[in-house]
Design brief:
Two copies of one chain form a homodimer. The first copy, chain A, is of the alpha/beta class. Chain A has one domain: 3-Layer(aba) Sandwich (Aminopeptidase). Chain A is about 25% helix and about 25% strand. The first copy, chain A, has helices spanning about 20-30, 45-50, 65-70, 75-90, 120-135, 170-195, 290-295, and strands spanning about 5-10, 35-45, 100-105, 110-115, 135-140, 155-165, 200-210, 225, 245, 250-255, 260-265, 280-285. In chain A, strands 2-1-3-6-4-5-7-12-11 form a nine-stranded mixed sheet, covered by helices on one side. Chain A has a three-stranded antiparallel sheet with strand order 8-9-10, with no helix packed on it. The longest helix of chain A has 22 residues, at about 170-195. The interface between A and B is medium-sized, with 28 and 28 residues.
Chain lengths: ~300, ~300
């Protein structure tokens, strides 16, 4: 196997602090050399991390397509995206094959995998982690308003998303979950290489269908909350008539779609500014090619 | 009974959004006139609320002594403190007798009362609420670094502090807790007036002793976390040797004081910038004068 370099990014959002701690702790503890796989570590948005804010000028995790056409260095995150690609990109100074971007959410989603689009290598990596941990996979696609994600700038990459945890709040439980994922990645790739495990042929994914905003007044103020029956119920299916929101007078606003959907990122704090109260997904079975995956990893 | 005007302040910290929702909902639902008690409502820091940040220039809830000597209107919160006193202060345009300031915390403190110093009228109001709900009372005093609290600018005033809830996260459970407190205040004062209740003679309080910071590196970075045994254990006593922090290598830093203490605001996110990992309190019994309280409220 040729040497694979895996870039582990934490603090892409500066107020998601548990991954930064976990990576720091991991890098101090795990100094064993593996001739097959090398980890590189970087804080995505160090200035935002220092300030405890999500970003300085723009969301860094929406700034990676901009680098193709926008070299506006007055925007901190564009400058930072350029730096990360020039340094660790596939054609960079210290090139990495895979990017793992570690995030937290205030939604009660547990540990999950987020992938962007249907790249075959991403499916292989997702299959590896789903095989080991049974994690749900959220496939983000078909959303023209949400583009420019970090991992898309690498040939293969995934987001690990863990919640619920408040922004800027250190939670040992969340830190441990990150440590388990980072720590096992290399082992799992090695097991695959040594034919000790076989990836599942079919992968269950939750494919993004769209997002809905909170009900709002004309002035933009939110005037209904996530319904208590929906709180903390990420990944649980809902059907027509199930409550979504409740207003100040106690009136319920139900889900009106015809199809059963699986909501995620329910009430995510950072998405209020993006006019997203929750996103809707549908369950889907995707076939993964053994051959391609073994080729890629081994 | 002379008319008592009670000022209900929410959003003194702009990212504590549940009280703002609760007050808005309450003011729409409870339009009954009470000849004895009138509620006034105001958002403490509307600009910070709009931006979802704790404050703009300074912490508004540390800006109320500054008004005595500092009229620097370039600082938004000083200007706002002046406005609130000029409008609703005891000698203001629309004078209020009592200020209730509604806050949330990311610490797992449940619903509690915070009072500043040992003003007799504050003890009466605290006794009223403790009698009804059995809420713990945190008495903040003897801390020269932390001064200028909003309620100190009124003849009588308390903070209602509810957690745990993340900043900028709407939680119906937390909103309901605020609604219960606001809704019952007027009823309880009326009951006291009609001699339907008698205040307890003794009040259990948790008196502030000091605060401790996270262990830090020389560059100021936090290098140990709240110990898992301490997480969510606000109000629970600890004694010498009990774990406080744990560093990246798994080393525990214990509490080294001789006296048993009761920690509060454990891991409060907003206090990291104030170099506070938790505050220590001691349990104390305070006598409340029936006579003075009845005089004040009736």
């Amino acid at each position: 196997m040729s040497l694979k370099k895996i870039l582990i990014v934490s603090g892409t959002h500066g107020n998601e602090i548990n991954p930064v701690w976990a990576v720091n702790q991991f890098s101090k503890q795990k100094n064993t050399i593996d001739k097959n796989i090398e980890y590189k570590y970087i804080i995505g948005n160090p200035l935002a991390f220092e300030r405890g804010s999500r970003y300085i000028d723009n969301d860094l995790n929406r700034s990676f397509n901009a680098t193709k056409c926008n070299r506006d260095n007055s925007i901190y995150e564009i400058k930072r995206a350029n730096f990360l690609i020039e340094k660790f990109g596939f054609n960079g100074i210290d090139p990495c094959d895979i990017a793992i971007d570690l995030h937290t959410t205030t939604a009660n989603m547990g540990t999950s995998i987020v992938m962007y689009g249907r790249r075959v290598k991403d499916f292989c990596l997702a299959a590896l982690l789903q095989h080991k941990f049974g994690l749900p996979i959220y496939l983000h696609e078909k959303d023209l308003k949400q583009t420019g994600f970090l991992v898309e700038a690498w040939p293969c990459g995934l987001v690990i998303e863990i919640g619920s945890v408040a922004q800027n709040f250190y939670d040992p439980k969340i830190i441990n979950r990150f440590l388990i994922i980072i720590g096992s990645l290399r082992d799992e790739i090695n097991k695959l290489k040594n034919k000790q495990i076989k990836l599942p042929k079919d992968l269950v994914i939750y494919a993004h269908q769209g997002s809905i905003d909170y009900p709002r007044e004309k002035n933009g103020n939110i005037n209904a909350l996530i319904h208590p029956e929906r709180m903390n119920q990420d990944w649980r299916p809902i059907k027509k008539g199930d409550p979504l929101f409740v207003d100040m007078e106690g009136n319920t606003k139900p889900y009106t779609g015809e199809d059963t959907i699986w909501p995620v990122f329910i009430g995510e704090v950072a998405y209020k500014e993006k006019n997203i109260a929750m996103s809707f997904t549908k369950k889907e079975l995707v076939s993964v090619s053994d051959y391609v995956c073994e080729e890629f990893f081994t």
